[in-house]
């Protein structure tokens, strides 16, 4: 069964939220794993996750808890996925990229550059006996199409399956990473391309999923076949509800496509974490390109971390609630009405019952 860590992260109030709503926030910390949330319409809720990162938490805390163990395993040939989920403006890209991938002080560095540092730390501590080759591909999924961020002419990459590499993106550019500084230059180049592509297509970055795919090939010696690991970091498109965006025309189609793929992701993670269901062992990877690409990084002997990014402002409480419910469902924990218990905290999310919970799942997942 797949192994998933689910965390929540609250960013500080934005200046706009402060201006319009003052300093009030809709969450109350209980401890490092549990908090309560107040929504004016739906009431009070209590959530427990593997870890909660509050407004004052540092980028390094997120990396150390959520990503470092997965990086270590990827170096040993265990596939992994790290996903940021949440409404637009909730802190997904900040968590993933930091402020600026090249010009970022140590404190603000995001997961991507820390993951790269982690790879090279592990390489230098592994000694001479194993040779590692790390490669990076960057793609974006927009309106159901996969685009190569290292080569914008490859704008409809097909997904295939191979015996040696598992799920692969056919013809995607793979850039070998030689050292951390050079790796960041490459990443930055891909990010610049993303901006160019988005301008060409008149699309905002929050309307597409960005995927950073690291492959780690080990070469032991001529006789022993080395292991192959894959680590995919995913900065998802904004999860805001369709009706709230008031979208029409193309924006409406974009939102529908996004909701469908996020829903497919929720279903896959849920099926993986709850084991056999009424549908047997079927895991619906093929329901979206996103889940198909993530298939072997999510399933089998793999590790997944989901970071649910949220605003702490009362003005965003409904979206925050929906994001947290996605996290709860990913962990596949049944909603338990107001039960307070100390047993197995890590496996429990307490959600007060709400008549709209099922509808809300349907809408947001
Ligand atoms: P998203 O990618 O979810 O749409 P962003 O990561 O772009 O959202 O965050 C929106 C804004 O909030 C950005 O200006 C970002 O720098 C800021 N921000 C997000 N999270 C934090 C945080 N933990 N600490 C400080 N600023 C943050
Ligand atoms: Mg973003």
TrEMBL record:
GO terms for cellular component: microtubule. Signal peptide: none annotated. One of its GO terms (molecular function) is microtubule motor activity. GO terms for biological process: microtubule-based movement. Residues 3-333 form the Kinesin motor domain. It comes from the Eukaryota. Keywords: ATP-binding, Coiled coil, Microtubule, Motor protein, Nucleotide-binding. ATP binds at residues 86-93. Belongs to the TRAFAC class myosin-kinesin ATPase superfamily. Kinesin family. KIN-1 subfamily. This is Kinesin-like protein. The chain holds residues 1 to 365 of 477 of the full protein.
